[in-house]
Design goal:
There is one protein chain. The chain has about 120 residues and is mostly helical. It has one domain: c-terminal domain of poly(a) binding protein. It is built from seven helices and no strands. Helix 3 (about 30-45) runs antiparallel to helix 4. The longest helix is centred in the first third of the chain and has 17 residues, at about 30-45.
Length: about 120
């Protein structure tokens, strides 16, 4: 019970460690890659998942995979822009959409619950 209370107050320490390790790896990327990683990560957090689905942000897998990708292209000597392209928000949206695990978006769920509630009431 104490463990649950601690997680409630300060969060999951394992998740925090994982996040810090992932961010450290992002900082250790070559300068251009690190810059792109931080901007893309900020975009993904700001706009959220495509179609309002936020289930992909429940773990760091997506961002860890992004760091893995950037590490690999840096090793190959490729430029960041060669991978993300000139339409970076499209790259981000497509990258995020690969991590959607729940086929029902939050919008669809909201609409469904409201329709069901008011159809029961007789409207």
């Amino acid at each position: 019970m104490l463990d649950n209370f601690i997680k409630l107050i300060i969060g999951d320490l394992d998740e925090k460690r994982e996040y810090k390790q992932m961010m450290k790896r992002g900082d250790e990327l070559p300068k251009d890659y690190s810059f792109a990683f931080k901007k893309i990560q900020k975009y993904m957090y700001s706009v959220g998942a495509p179609s309002g689905n936020v289930t992909i942000f429940t773990d760091m897998t997506m961002f860890t995979d992004l760091v893995d990708l950037f590490e690999a292209i840096a090793t190959d000597g490729r430029l960041v822009i060669d991978v993300v392209g000139s339409d970076v928000d499209k790259f981000c949206d497509e990258f995020m959409s690969a991590y959607i695990t729940n086929s029902e978006t939050l919008r669809e769920k909201l609409n469904k619950e409201i329709r069901e509630k008011f159809n029961k009431v007789g409207r």
